[in-house]
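Summary for the steering committee. The consortium agreed at its last meeting that each partner would contribute one worked example illustrating the joint modelling workflow. Our contribution is presented below. We chose a case with several input lines so that the handling of multiple components could be demonstrated. No manual editing was applied between input and output; the record is shown as generated.
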Amino acid sequence: MSIVSTVLAVASDTASSHQLETAETLIAAARFFVIFLAARALAEGMVRLRLPTILGELVAGILIGLSGLHLILPPETQAEVSGWFLGLLGSLAHVGPDVVRDVYIETFPNLQSVGTIGLFALLFLTGLECELDELMAVGLQAGGVALTGVLLPLTLGTLGLLWIFHVPLIAAVFAGATMTATSIGITASVFGELKVLRSREGQIVIGAAVLDDILGIVLLAVVVSLAGSGSVALQPILRLVLAAVAFVAVSLLLSRRAAPLFDAVLDRLQAPGDVVVAAFLVLCLSCFSAQAVGLEAALGAFAAGLILSGSRHAHAMEEAIKPLVALFATVFFVVIGTTMDLSVLNPLVPENRQGLVLAVFLLSVASITKLAAGWTYRMAEPTNRLVVGLGMLPRGEVGLIFLGLGAQAGVLDPSLEAGVLVMVIGTTFLAPVLLRLVLSRQSLPSAPATAG
Amino acid sequence: MSIVSTVLAVASDTASSHQLETAETLIAAARFFVIFLAARALAEGMVRLRLPTILGELVAGILIGLSGLHLILPPETQAEVSGWFLGLLGSLAHVGPDVVRDVYIETFPNLQSVGTIGLFALLFLTGLECELDELMAVGLQAGGVALTGVLLPLTLGTLGLLWIFHVPLIAAVFAGATMTATSIGITASVFGELKVLRSREGQIVIGAAVLDDILGIVLLAVVVSLAGSGSVALQPILRLVLAAVAFVAVSLLLSRRAAPLFDAVLDRLQAPGDVVVAAFLVLCLSCFSAQAVGLEAALGAFAAGLILSGSRHAHAMEEAIKPLVALFATVFFVVIGTTMDLSVLNPLVPENRQGLVLAVFLLSVASITKLAAGWTYRMAEPTNRLVVGLGMLPRGEVGLIFLGLGAQAGVLDPSLEAGVLVMVIGTTFLAPVLLRLVLSRQSLPSAPATAG
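What follows is the complete predicted structure of the assembly.
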């Protein structure tokens, strides 16, 4: 007896279990095909415009989702999948469009769970690639930049949303928290392209971005739990913050102590696929532990990467995880795009004006506060503070992960969701463009040690 | 609004959506952990016994599933998941065991869909690794061995089940078909270990195994469709066989013609992850096409690999797909093991006697017919026909894929399912053991061209 046919037993006396399985396979293959085709086409476009590919994946989702062709639609959007798409799939599976729609909705969680695996694989990879030793060299400067870059947007964003826009407390804190992250990946690739990755500015920004990731994911674990419980009493917040800090501290400790043990076990394994399976076991255990102590599994995934970053096999793990990320994290980002309702940003509709003002507010706070962080460190040697500030700007995938988990937890209303999306897209777009502009006019006071 | 909370809205007014999400994450992490830990431990054991690792994955599934600890249980088994396991997860998520059980059942399809992705990735890899040019060199001999090795067990198995055991027609054809496959992977690794991969016998067996895979998957596509429609009229069978043969013929043609086109497109892609995403797009398209013309998506996955085996990037694709297979095909094989009810093989229960006789019958037919295939080719040079026959013996992963899809389609009753399992495990276990025994006593008449 097939899974779907069991679930749909009531809804579909008209279709045989074989027809339902055929419909299920056709829908799954068609959804993956549409997602990867759109994401790939847009990502290739972004590469040619020298913009981050993640923008392409997001725009791809917008184009095929709720604000576009209605081909990929998570059931929680409550919208209708394109009639011609369902009709085509139905005629190939020899069932009616109603049955196809039921199977489409019923099997959507399978797609989302694949996206979640991609998200955790990406967070694991981010933790794995953290160069903790390099961080130590610029620790003091990076620490100042990271702390300002987290606290300023969180405070100003939350207070502004509360006082100016009268957003509910939890939603305001959540939106404020989405502005704290800095995307290591995007900053590192732009700095690398401009050959300033090894400059003092580059090292400070990358160090600060790593710290930002740690602070941001701790914050995420706290804020999502708050959103889940629905209350903002001081005691649970303190408990969560302490738990999250302890979790990261233990992970950092384990990356020194447990990694050699992990290597010793791995060296004894002989069956094929040992590296990726061993990494996955640590990932599952860490996600389980984080969730079991009331934090987010996302923090566990990142912590698992941190723990194994000390392993001799870290590079082999990166290589094994990358194809998984290329496939499944793409699903996660595209699906976020599909849920976005851009019609709330249409300036021709009078009710949308406040939402637009809100989007502009979020983008401005997110940009100004991160730029300001460039002026918050002390260093004897001259550095270009504007370059540091701009380097902190892109929110990229970390901002999107916040947005995706916030949308899942149902804390953000459509206009706030669209505002956060504009903020993430805006900063991710502006950072590389402005950095290229600034660096083409001024050379850095610190000569690069080696070309990035 | 979370996915699970929407689905379970009715069943669980007592638990908040945050608690349900926590339970969902804990269950998913715990299930993956149990599956990978058991599979890895048993696979490592098998490697040390010099037996195929797939036996370990299967035994792991049996140990944690219906015939063992009841930790991983597909809902279609109708059995109860271990109470202490649900209780532990429930206490960590702060929900009752009933809610955990509901979430466990509701989210099991997510795990199965991940296993299906692993299965398709494995079939894609098998197609990709087909050395079509090497096949041509031993084409005539391999063709004879493959054809006998498919037709003999199919005919004798089906007729025996019909006449001796009075099994229904479709189930008999299905069980007969499960005996046709030969596992390339297992045979190649045993021959490689014994340094006879490049001998005449090795080349004939590998060639025949490749042909067997093609014939077997064509047969699978036909038999599963028959099982789905529930009738065995001649016309649909002919139509399906023709469609399947045409599908494979087009794929073989495309592997010469379309692969250069694919390479040209791939050379123009610049965004990261291009190889794996491009391969996945072809895979989706091929699975969709196969299913759309009424065949199995599994045939499409294998054909996609055949098509891309002509690409210059075939090796890069193999490397990118392997970690996916190591993770997710393992889920597929372990889950097959979890559904197996070994109590029907308990010889102390009188009603089980016929099932045991049936298992012995299947194992004997499967062994004798494949051994006989070793005497069905003509060759001027002397060859060791016993080695060829033994090389054709292991059913391995292809037999399991048949079994898994047959169980899903609900054609096999528990005792027939257990009988097929015994046949797959038995042949996969016997082949390496007997091959080592024979080759330690006799040397091959054909000296190896190069050590495998």
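The CA atoms of residues 65 and 405 of chain B lie 18 Å apart. Residues 1-13, 447-452 of chain B have pLDDT under 50 and may be disordered.
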